Every structure is written in C-alpha cells, then in structure tokens.
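WARN no homologs supplied; continuing
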Amino acid sequence: MSTFATVTLGLILIRYCFELWLDGLNAAHVRNHADKVPEAFREIMDQETYKKSVQYTLSKARFGTVSDTYSTALLCILLFSGWLAELFGLIVEISGQTHWGLALALWIIILMISLLSLPFSWHSQFRLEERFDFNNSTQRTWWTDQAKAIVLSLAIGVPLLALILWLVEKSGEYWWLWAWGVVVVFQLLMSVLAPVFILPLFNKFTSLPDGSLKDRLNELAKRTGFINAGIQVMDGSKRSKHSNAFFTGLGKGRKIALFDTLLEQLNEEELEAVLAHEIGHFKLRHVPKMIAWSFIITLAGFWVLSFLAQQPWFAGSFGFGVQASHAPAFLLFGLLAGTVTFWLSPLSSFWSRKFEYEADAFAADATGNSVPMVTALRKLNRENLANLTPHPWYSGFHYDHPALLEREAALQTLNQEDTSS
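OK structure emitted
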C-alpha cells in the first residue's frame, strides 16, 4: 500500500472512530435524561411521549452506527482491494473511452454503490420509521421513487459529467474554472426547473384553499414585502408523518410549499409564524449567502481536484493505471471528499444555526409576538419526536438547527426586550 493510500485509510478510520465516539457521547447524554421529562419540557411533553422520543433518538443512533460501519467498510474494500479500479476498467471497456462512455462508467459505479446501500434506506423507511408510526409510504411508492431517481440521475447526471469531461480536454489548464461555471449555471437552472418538472414527479402540489389561513398568509407576505407566485400544499403525508415548509423557484416565480402534515399539526397563528420564519431567511438574504458559500466550496473543490488529477500517485494509489482521462480522479475525489469536509461540519452548522436564530427573530417581529413561534416549535418537536437533550458536541457536528431549548431561550429574550421597551 502506498504512503498516500495509508494516509487516506487513516483519515477514513479517524473520521469513523470520531463519529462512533460522538454517537456514544450523544446516546449517553440522552440516557442520562431519559428517566423523566426535563423540567424545561414538562409543559410541552408528557412522560409517555418523552419516553418515545428517547427511544426514537436511540434507535436512530444505533441504526446510524450500523449504517456508517457498513458504508465505511464498503468504501475501504472498494478502494484498498483494487476492486474499484478493476470494475471501472471493465465498464470502460464496454462503454468506451469517449466522454460519454467515461461519464456513463462513472454513473454506473455510483449507481452500484448506491444500490449496495439501498437495503439500509428501505430498513429506515419500513422498519425504523414504521416502528414509531411515521411511515405512510407503501412499497410501491417507495420503489417507484427509487426508479424515478435512477432515471433522473441518468438523464441529468450523465450529460453533465460528459460535458465536464469534455471541458477537461478542450479548455486546457484552467478547465476547472470552466467546469465550475457549468456547475453554477446548472444549479441555478435546476432551482428554476426542478419545482416545475421534477418535484411534481414525486409529490402532488395543490393551491392552498381559499379561507382565513390563505388570507392570513397572503397578508403576511404583503406586510413583509415578500413577492411570491402562490402558496401550495404538498402531499407529504403520502410518505411520512414528518412535516416541513419550504420555498421553490427563484424571483417572482418563487412559491411557498407547506406539507399537508404541517397544516394538521399547527393552528393558523403558528403557521403564520412558521411562514414568517421562512420569509425571514429570504429577507435576510440567508439563501443567497448559503448559495454563494456552496459555490465557493465547489470552486475550491474543483481546484483541488485539478491538482490531484495531475498527480500519478493519486489514482495510482488505488489501483488505477496512468490514464489520459481525469475520470478516475473524479470518482476518487467524489468518494473521499466527505472524509475531509466532515471536519468542516461545525463551521457550516454554526452558520446555519445563526441564520435560524435570525429568522426566528424576524418571525417574532413580523407577527408582533414570539409566542406563536414558540408554540409552533414545541408542537413540531413533539410531533416529530425530536431529541430534546442532544449533547453539545454532537449537535455541533450534526445539527443545522438549534435545539428547542436554545431557540426558546432566544425567543423569550426577544419577548422580554420588547416588553421592557
């Protein structure tokens, strides 16, 4: 095994062991608070529901450990046994050394790895989620979703990969800048096209019925200067009892989407507060900031990839021969990038949580009261059996939203400031 391969294996195992430690730390923290409902949550959750939330948290943790162990072992076997290089070579012999052939080979490898992990996705949906009464999906719906996702990835992913591989050959030393530009344009284009052509393939969207709720939400949008193309209800209950709200599209074509489960769980004041929170993300320019950050990370990634692709030891360390194509480097980079970016998780999580606090404050100001936002958060945490007592280190790596108690404290502070003024 080469020096680089040895270092890579060490980094993979360090990441894996640290994740195990984090999971154990969080599980122990949850168990320490499992005997009775913490005083801060007694207003929102009875003992039986709290016990169920603890069991759900611990069950997900155990499942996550098994899943991560499997995916880490699979990655190591593919990389360090030489099987990945051999498999790629066999597929390329059939698909050819053209841009399209190499792109198809990359897609097939990625698909095969995804299929090897598919049983875990199935178990999560039909065993874990079913056990805690969250699953509403049927086998037919779930398998149809998988088939649609595969077809879409083939129709969209292969042409994009082929274009990037073509740019590598045609645009010279700075191909990575051109490739980055293509990815940026692609992501912006998909943000416009996906809500129109892709999301409806998986879910049904209907206009929010006329009535007091629609009037209230439209008034909120008008009051906050939020221009949108309408409010839609998504049939999220077709697959799960979990709830959410989000925006789709860009510019004046932007639409508000509410899960039907959300409408069932919250009253009108609380729904207004949740929508105000989402509008806050837009008005405070959180979305373009996050998009800009993702573009910067993508640019840095392409630059690193351009360097690694020129080093014979990069692909050679994992059994790939010296090849004219950058395709093996693309494949290896995609498989290994997460091992490095994992350590940046606290930074992105901190930034995301900061935005959540700001959006909460915007919602409290837009609705004139922090109480509906607090009660909405309480209901959503209860209905989704959220972990109310995460360990700070664990949440620092894995939570892009603050824990309930942290968000409540911030909102209550705002309420006290408004009262005193």
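The chain has a mean pLDDT of 91.
OK
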